[in-house]
Amino acid sequence: MNRRPRQRRTAFLLLGTLLTAATLSACGGGTEESSGSESVSEQEIQAALDKPTELTVWSWSGSLPDVAKAFEKEHPGIKIKVENVGTGAEQYTKLQNAIKAGKGAPDLATVEYNAIPQYALSDALVDLKRFGFDSLKDQFDPAAWDPVNVNGGLYELPLNAGPMALFYNKKTFDRFGIKVPTTWDEYLKAAQKLHKADPEYYISADNGNAGLTESLIWSAGGRPFKVDGDKISVDLEDAGTKKYAENYQRLLDEKLLSPVAGWSPEWYKGLATGKIATLASGAWMAGILKSSVAQASGDWRVAPLPSYDGESTTSMNGGGSLAMMQQGDKKLVAAAFLRYVSAEKGADITQATGSFPARVKVLQSKEFLGAKDEYFGGQQVNRVFADSLYDVAEGWQYLPYDVYAVTIFNDKAGKAYTGEKKLQEGLNDWGQELVTYGKEQGFSVN
Questions:
Q1: What is the pTM for the complete model shown?
Q2: For 123-134, how does the pLDDT look when each residue is reduced to its tens digit (9 = 90+)?
Q3: Is the terminal CB of the chain with fewer CB neighbours within 10 Å at N or C?
Q4: Which CATH number fits domain 15-161+319-358: 3.40.1190.20, 3.80.10.10, 3.40.190.10, 3.30.450.70?
Q5: Under CATH, to which class is 164-315+374-445 assigned?
């Protein structure tokens, strides 16, 4: 499931709606299987697979239809209806509408890791411990396992991971005599040298990206969000966040970042020509470059994310899997398919499309680590991503309304990218709104 850019939505249902609709969602569906949280056995799951059943799955994953076909071939009585109802926030809005109504939700839905707390807290998702899936913990890398566990519940089996790395255009670097930066100080110097040599060239592009901002704060040691049940702390002036903001401000002050919007035609053109020379991104960006910037094959490489102090501390950006909705009344078959997608043959099918895996056995495979990627000049990029995943710093938490936080980021912090205010000011404005919003939804926030 290659992560796609988070889409901005101005219309967004309040989390409070989800919370008040929790009881409705819990009683959605009309069979005995749809209610309760009692444990079920493997025998019950296997028996359910012998009965004709149709599952509905909402997902924007390009690989999931092929996974569904493979599952159907193994279980002829099962039909998997994969519906693409929108990408990211577009799907989340429709999902929330169904939760509010108490009906209309699918059996399973793609939910990115950052969005899991929002749905888990509202009791809209099924705790997969019911099926004994917590026993699969050792099959997944801890950096991918941690986000799917919320308040003691397990709400997904990880499918992919988004360890951060620095994608750089080697052709551009070679042309201007730039060395691959290992620290953010070196990154600033590379940005200065590049833009001075040719003003049409920029080290990167950023006109405000909430997901990137969170990931860079994470890698800088910031932990601005702390969640303990309904108690939340928002502090976008902690030491790590300040470190990130002060560093990034230097790039903004000197106008070293291209102002073009991410995912725009101009952005893709900049990547193709090398005039946008780097991308700090999750491992999923490899697939984006191959599919959307194919003409630049051989120009790009991957390096570790720059550090502040020489320590290999990284973070995650993106990733997600399938979550089971409480409204569904075919939970046993849904559990079997969910496991197939993340822990069995389905994961192999998805991995073949370029998704970076979360399974330990793959991450430790010599064949996987040693694979040479021709797009990246024959580089063994999986080793870079795997090392980054190993170095993901612990302790990061997403707000239980991170989807909302993402949608308002540019409204509150966007002026920092146009020079109208400092980045730290923009982050503070964002934080104040997140505190206000959290209180409005019934959380205890400080």
A1: 0.91
A2: 999 999 999 999
A3: C
A4: 3.40.190.10
A5: alpha beta
